[in-house]
Amino acid sequence: MKLAFLAAATATLIAAAAPAFADGATTTVALGGNVPGLCGTGHQSGNGLRAAGSDTVALGDLVDANGFLSVADRDIEFDNLWCNTPSTLQMTVTSLSTQGAVSDPTSFVNHLDVIVGNDGNAKLLQTYFGGATSVSSATNGGILTYALPGAFETGTGQYSKASLHITLPQGTVGNDRPIAGDYSGLVTLTATPQ
Length: 194
Hints:
The structure is a single chain. By secondary structure, the chain is mainly beta. 11% of the residues lie in helices and 28% in strands. It has two helices and 13 strands; from the N terminus they run αβββββββαββββββ. The chain has helices at residues 2-17, 124-128; strands at 39-41, 74-77, 81-83, 87-93, 96-97, 108-109, 111-117, 134-136, 143-148, 152-153, 161-167, 177-178, 187-193. 21% of the residues are buried.
């Protein structure tokens, strides 16, 4: 009986140590990685991340022969802008201004309002700012902000363009002339991952 018990115990140990054979087997290797939320400029064909472009739009003479404001509307185009994640877009528009002093504010100005909009084929604001029609240097500090819920890329052409309109400051009666000087301002488009 001891011999039968010892034989049974040995058989059990051998069975427990032996590999199991089955009709099929599965093994899994878990993979993982991360794509950080990024925004940048450049085309999807390459260039990677690079500093946002900075172009100067030469407006030329801002007045007519009588010294009154006379600037044709035009389109401005931004670099291709993209984000691979939900993001916040912000357009900031400053007035065109010069350093010269104004002695007669009833007749002269040293700054001009800048309005960026959707006129013609310029579709940037309409498409990426929730249907917005314009942003003005004279309204809300010249800032327009919109949260985009997903990844986007403006590309180039009509979807990276906005129209530019230069006007006399709000509150002028229409007979104001800009004083002489070099005028400068900025239109900045910024994308920040949320």
